[in-house]
Amino acid sequence: MRLFLGQRAWVLQRVTALVLLFLLALGAATLLTGPPLDYERWHALATSTHGAVLIVVFFAALGLHGWIGVRDIALDYIHAPMLRLALLAVVGVLLFAIVIRVVLTMAAHFAGGA
Amino acid sequence: MRLSIYRFNPETDLKPRMQDYELAPEAGDKKLLDALMRLKTIDDSLSFRRSCREGVCGSDAMNINGRNGLACLTPLVGLKEPVVLRPLPGFPVIRDLIVDMTQFFAHYHSIKPYLINDTVPPERERLQSPAEREKLNGLYECILCACCSSFCPSFWWNPDKFIGPAGLLQAYRFISDSRDTATAERLAYLDDVYRLFRCRTIMNCTEVCPKGLSPSHAIERIRQALVRESS
Ligand code: SF4
Ligand code: SF4
Ligand code: FES
């Protein structure tokens, strides 16, 4: 029974951490250089194909990384099965909702043909 | 010298208490265990385990001034006084400094701490090259004193499910043995979110091992072996 994966989660945690680190650095570098950061520029960045894809990737990695981290904390400290299940369910749904929201926003924008 | 020692007798005490002792060490008393043995001649109700008195059997592991160690390897000089002695943290106390190691050894046995090899045994022993033998250094020396596991926060949180640094170091000892043919099964057993992956590389284990071994390094190698196995 592989309800809680062992090494796959561990590897994913590390891979997503690297992705997050890279995208954060890239984001910081992009935002700190170039023209002043106003709404126009934000919008342009977020709606360029590159920007949109990277933002979706960022939030997907964030969701996965957060999920594995919270799951680890729950496995360590929360031993009451019901409480653990409840916490994991809430956090799981929350993280999933965030990722879906980002994807939907992007999809809506591109479908809207802006 | 002054000592403060954790006392608990399950037959008479409801709660553990700390008892203070004054002791005048004699000329031959070099290590903490010598002092404890002398104390035992004064108060024979004081209970602790010991056997080899030279760091080989692993039975006198205890918490010495907040740090796990073997009493027989701890020099008296340089010990801050009062010397506070407690049983190994995270283990059920049987009496005074004696803890219940049942679970610890159950974890040890779970990793099958023996060579598994189904091929026909040769006429004499299974040979290893010097390089293959070299891989067991830093692993085979473990005396199962439990200083490491008892100092591992992950082991405190999940003592029943996380194998702990001692058991994992032993697991790696057999994984890296060229004469053992069960590497894949061993790795499959360890690929579990509790058994191996509760370790968070806090490295208390390596920091505290009285034999100078590095369980956290062994754990890292198991993880690498798992990644190699699955790629
Ligand atoms: S690894 Fe070191 S501390 Fe842990 S049981 Fe073995 S000898 Fe003791
Ligand atoms: S490195 Fe792992 S096994 Fe060692 S003390 Fe830390 S969590 Fe425990
Ligand atoms: S008495 Fe054997 S290790 Fe200390």
From TrEMBL, chain A:
Its cofactor is heme. One of its GO terms (molecular function) is electron transfer activity. This is Succinate dehydrogenase hydrophobic membrane anchor subunit. It comes from Aromatoleum tolulyticum. Pfam families: Sdh_cyt. It is found in: Cell inner membrane. Pathway: Carbohydrate metabolism; tricarboxylic acid cycle. GO terms for cellular component: plasma membrane. Membrane-anchoring subunit of succinate dehydrogenase (SDH). It is a multi-pass membrane protein. Keywords: Cell inner membrane, Cell membrane, Electron transport, Heme, Iron, Membrane, Metal-binding, Transmembrane, Transmembrane helix, Transport, Tricarboxylic acid cycle. One of its GO terms (biological process) is cytochrome complex assembly. A ubiquinone binds at residue 77. The chain crosses the membrane at residues 49-70, 82-104. Heme binds at residue 65. Its main location: membrane. NCBIfam families: succ_dehyd_anc.
Automatic annotation (TrEMBL), chain B:
One of its GO terms (molecular function) is 3 iron, 4 sulfur cluster binding. Its cofactor is [2Fe-2S] cluster; [4Fe-4S] cluster; [3Fe-4S] cluster. Residues 132-162 form the 4Fe-4S ferredoxin-type domain. It comes from Aromatoleum tolulyticum. It catalyses: a quinone + succinate = fumarate + a quinol. Binds 1 [2Fe-2S] cluster. Binds 1 [4Fe-4S] cluster. It is an enzyme of class 1 (oxidoreductase). The keyword Secreted does not apply. This is Succinate dehydrogenase iron-sulfur subunit.
